[in-house]
Target: TonB domain protein
Amino acid sequence: MKTIGKIAPLLLALSTVSPLVLADEFSDVYRSYQQAWESGNNIEARGFAEKAYSLGEAKFGKDSVDYANLGLNLAKALRSDNSGDFAVNRQRATEIATLSLASYEARFGEEATDLIDPLMVLGDVTQDSKTARKAYQRALNIAKDSGKGDLLAYTRMNAFKRLARTEYYTSAVYGYIRDAHEYFAQHRPANSAVRLEATYLLAGAHMGNAKYRKAEPLYLEVIEQYKVLDYTHPYALGAHSRLVELYERMGKSELSTEHCIAIGSMKPWDDNQEQTPLFRKNPEFPMELVRRGKSGWAEISFTVDEMGMVRDPKVLDSEGGKGFEKASMEALSAWRYAPKFEDGKPVKAESSVRLDFRVER
Model:
């Protein structure tokens, strides 16, 4: 698949380092960082990014762009590593990304396209939505002024990804992914990674607005293209999962079955874990028990059949009254799961779940 030439991954930003530097300890540490990052080992990536950042200060100087790139790598690694204190990591990532951005501004000025990468990293790593919006707005303005369609579409897509989950999600932010998708659909082949990402994200935007008929063909397009590419991708798995929910909400359970089965074939069943439903209907709290201020729970065993449907639910235990048992059984009958696979075929499997009913006092 093609990638956008202008937005080069930051992990390759030091490809022009001199041969003398590449032969020393820094080179080994940086290479280890690259390998860990590319393999998704976030804890190791963070450790190597920390060391590279420390070594880089002496090698390149604190005000150099090379050192700033190492800071951006570390900021992203801190954001991705969930093993430590989340808030502390995000705060430190924000501080480092801000310092890196300042180095870029000192080198290239405040309107250069070179600032788009560090601005997006800052927007992504900060916990503060206002800071994220400000960073992405600057990046978008620079991208617009550049006159480069690829750059603007890519920046819009990333701005949507970050701002869609904040209080600043508006019709304008929705427009970012709509416009990005339109551009990539016109200028990228159907199996392009960036086009498929934009397609998946636009489908999600439609799904969130309950525009199921608009979301459906987009999710199907993602699935079809990854079939052609012949490998499993998280977006393909996600598209199958969202289509299960979509069809159930549209009252088309028969269409969701093939996607339940597809997920089952892609994702191994773990007998030691409680299975997560692809679609769940929340139980209705019995009004009589609400009026009495009564809380309770019900534990139900059931069979997930070859089509991912719930069969033979039975009450294992409960507390609070029969009303909770009945509400749990009724809700559970509408749930959908990915079936268990054995020897390449879907089979029945046993599972259980506990549903809790609580009255807030």
Observations:
- Residues 1-146 form a domain with the Serine Threonine Protein Phosphatase 5, Tetratricopeptide repeat fold (CATH 1.25.40.10).
- Residues 1-17 have pLDDT under 50 and may be disordered.
- Strands lie at 296-304, 310-319, 340-342, 345-347, 349-357.
- The CA atoms of residues 64 and 255 lie 56 Å apart.
